[in-house]
């Protein structure tokens, strides 16, 4: 197994003073949490970035492709799956900060094709927080294309009144991202790759991996160890289509923990994504991100990231007013595609965070457990 560590690459001068946890100590912690996962689940390649006091360390394991045997590095591109939703949320927050939309707007205000549909009564915020009224986890197969999705939305009938139930949904936040980009006058991929990502300092994060970066794009593997990568679908870029590296994701975590380094609209955007809108079983729903009071017990994290939360309707308990200053909390988001598994967690109040990317979709509970172990060791 290939192990690679790079210490403290991002100077503390950028975001404040601080020192790295001893590299050897942290490496032992990461190794002990990661090695069993890779062996148990047959993961070919896995990359970890840890962030503490504004400084980043990288730990890389295995290969990005079993065919080429190229080792994983902090530049290897992994599919983020639903961690992509945190970028979509940030774009929506940026659109609001730029005056292009308000989260209280009804969805149909930003797309004439939706006027006269259920989306006359559904807000952008409800779309972004999976509370539009029961949009499903995935598009039905017949609607899962750019050409057919609008017809699906035009005829869709809510199961619940808007705002009552949380039903985790790619079409829901996907439409939010689509409308956010519309409000900025750009297609979503352009708004993301040409406007948002460069302003965040992310130079190697993509929806469509360019040809000259193809050799950095890891090969994913399904449960039978067959090679697989994510395919096109309706609102794929908005909901699950971003590819990134631990180096760029560490920068993204730093931007979320230290937004004062960014432009004023991006600072407002990140504050919007960190706002708590409602609670479900101990988890608070932000925009893209989800969070918990910190310190958080492992079981609470496992419960909040369980299939019960992801696959079942759950009553949303709206916070009045919304929680704009969450205090000491841990933000997190999971993401999966057919051949990749991702998890990101960070605690701004402690200035610690962790990114775990793998080219296998392995159980979310195991990702959460590993990240909790790493963060707990860092918080000493």
Based on secondary structure, the structural category is alpha+beta
Q: Ranges with pLDDT <50 over ≥5 residues?
A: 1-19
The best one-word shape is: globular
The share of residues in extended strands comes to 15-25%
Q: What is the CATH T-level topology of the domain at 79-213 and 224-242 and 260-295 and 303-320 and 362-380?
A: Beta-lactamase
User: What is the CATH class name of the domain at 79-213 and 224-242 and 260-295 and 303-320 and 362-380?
Assistant: Alpha Beta
Q: Based on DSSP secondary structure assignment, what is the total number of beta strands?
A: 16
Mean pLDDT: 94
The value of Rg in angstroms is 20 Å
Q: Count of helices?
A: 12
Series of H and E elements: EHEEEHHHEHHEEHEHHEEEHHEEEEEH
- Spatial arrangement of strands, main beta sheet: 1-3-2-16-15-14-11-10-9-13
CATH homologous superfamily grouping of the domain at 79-213 and 224-242 and 260-295 and 303-320 and 362-380: DD-peptidase/beta-lactamase superfamily
Distance between the termini: 28 Å
**What is the second-level CATH architecture of the domain at 79-213 and 224-242 and 260-295 and 303-320 and 362-380?**
3-Layer(aba) Sandwich
The helicity comes to: 25-40%
Largest sheet: 10 strands, antiparallel
């Amino acid at each position: 197994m290939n192990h690679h560590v790079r210490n403290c690459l991002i100077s503390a001068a950028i975001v404040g003073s601080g020192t790295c946890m001893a590299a050897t100590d942290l490496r032992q912690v990461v190794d002990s949490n990661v090695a069993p996962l890779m062996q148990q689940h047959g993961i070919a390649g896995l990359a970890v970035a840890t962030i503490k006091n504004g400084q980043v360390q990288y730990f890389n394991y295995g290969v990005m492709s079993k065919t080429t045997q190229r080792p994983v590095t902090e530049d290897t591109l992994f599919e983020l799956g639903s961690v992509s939703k945190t970028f979509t949320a940030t774009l929506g927050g940026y659109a609001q900060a730029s005056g292009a939309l308000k989260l209280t707007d009804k969805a149909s205000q930003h797309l004439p094709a939706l006027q006269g549909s259920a989306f006359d009564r559904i807000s952008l915020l409800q779309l972004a927080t999976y509370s539009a009224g029961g949009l499903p986890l995935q598009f039905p197969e017949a609607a899962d294309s750019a050409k057919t999705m609008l017809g699906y939305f035009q005829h869709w009938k809510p199961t619940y009144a808007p705002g009552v139930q949380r039903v985790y949904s790619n079409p829901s936040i996907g439409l939010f991202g689509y409308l956010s980009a519309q409000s900025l006058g750009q297609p979503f991929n352009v708004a993301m790759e040409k406007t948002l990502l460069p302003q965040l300092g992310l130079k190697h994060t993509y929806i469509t991996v360019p040809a000259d970066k193809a050799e950095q794009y890891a090969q994913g593997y399904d449960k039978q160890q067959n090679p697989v990568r994510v395919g096109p679908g309706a609102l794929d870029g908005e909901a699950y289509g971003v590819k990134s590296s631990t180096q760029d994701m560490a920068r993204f975590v730093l931007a979320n923990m230290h937004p004062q380094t960014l432009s004023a609209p991006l600072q407002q955007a990140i504050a919007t994504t960190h706002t708590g809108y409602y609670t479900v079983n101990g988890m608070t729903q932000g925009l893209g991100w989800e969070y918990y009071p910190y310190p958080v017990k492992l079981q609470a994290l496992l419960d909040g990231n369980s299939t019960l939360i992801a696959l079942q309707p759950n009553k949303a308990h709206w916070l009045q007013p919304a929680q704009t200053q969450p205090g000491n909390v841990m933000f997190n988001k999971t993401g999966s595609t057919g051949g990749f598994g991702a998890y990101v967690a960070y605690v701004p109040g402690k200035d610690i965070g962790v990114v775990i990317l793998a080219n296998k979709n392995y159980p979310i509970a195991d990702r959460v457990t590993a990240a909790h172990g790493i963060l707990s060791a860092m918080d000493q």
